[in-house]
Here is the input.
Amino acid sequence: MVRYFEDLAEGESHDLGSYTADREELLAFARRYDPQPIHTDPEMAAETMYGGLIASGWHTAGSCMALLVENFLAETATLGSFGLEELRWRAPVYPGDTVRVAVEVIETRASESREDRGYVTNDVVAENEAGEEVLFWRSTNIFITEAGRDQWPRGE
Here is the structure.
């Protein structure tokens, strides 16, 4: 069943599951998209304050986004987002770390100009297995309302 704007409530939260940071995947991603030595050169990274190779924050964010889509957004009538209002990489993710991700609905507001949509502000938080926050983001997504139901191709 598809969840529309009206089906989302302020304060609801969802455990989105977890992923384990795979060393080879981290290296491949960083070499292509974020080739800083702390992400690509294990020997040099060992000499930094991190004491070893760490994941690119963009890899961490992408991994969290995949869990957000798979375990929350895929069941909703969402039309995307305006972008991130805030993104913080709070602590490094190391190869082998297991990262648990959750989302909380912070605010819902109906569009003042279009009855077919509403806006949902949500916080995504990721923590490592020690309970240390490694990522935080806040974004506002656009959701189809019941009134706009006919615009959603996967509607029920």
